[in-house]
Amino acid sequence: MKILTLIRLLLIGLWLGAACFFSFAVTQSAFAVLPTRELAGLVVSRTLTIVNFSGLFIGIILLLSSFIKQAETNRYRLAAERVLLVIFTLGCAVGQFVIGLWLSYVRMQINRPIDELAVDDPLRITFNNLHQYSVWVLIAAICAALIAFFLIGKQTTVKTMPLTAKI
């Protein structure tokens, strides 16, 4: 069943790569290159939707596959892995279906670029707070996925040739 472990590592690794690329490249580039912050926000929002849905899909697959019996599985490590996968999956779900929907609702109420609102406007404060929650939920999902990645990886043992072996 090592192939299952490798597939699971690939899936969570792909999501981690996408989430980190989104966090460090897409957001920075969108706000640096696009002519308005409103357009950059739309690009970031659309890309975050893809990251959240893929995380939700991958998280469910990883959770379900964790119930497939594997030889020599430490039950405490498996329990920790499942908890982390639940945190990861819930983080993506909450980010998309709770915070994302609230952000969309607030954006519809604003009905103009957010930067045009006064700093003390209640809608702008709400938007900024929701944005901050979104960032923290994504960070929690990334951290949980990263730790789960190492726990899943701990299940594989690769036999290597000793360095002193003669050919």
Structure write-up:
With 167 residues, this protein is mostly helical. The chain has one domain. 77% of the residues lie in helices and 0% in strands. The protein is built from 4 helices and no strands. The longest helix is centred in the middle third of the chain and has 36 residues, at 75-110. It is elongated. It starts with a helix and ends in a 14-residue tail after the last helix. The mean pLDDT is 91.
**Pairing-aware structural class of the strands and helices?**
mainly alpha
Percent of residues in helices comes to over 70%
Number of DSSP strand runs: 0
Largest sheet: none
Key terms:
elongated, mainly alpha, 167 residues, 77% helix
Task: Give the helices and strands, then pairings.
Blueprint: H1 2-33, H2 37-65, H3 75-110, H4 122-153
In short:
The protein is mainly α and 167 residues long. It is 77% helix and 0% strand.
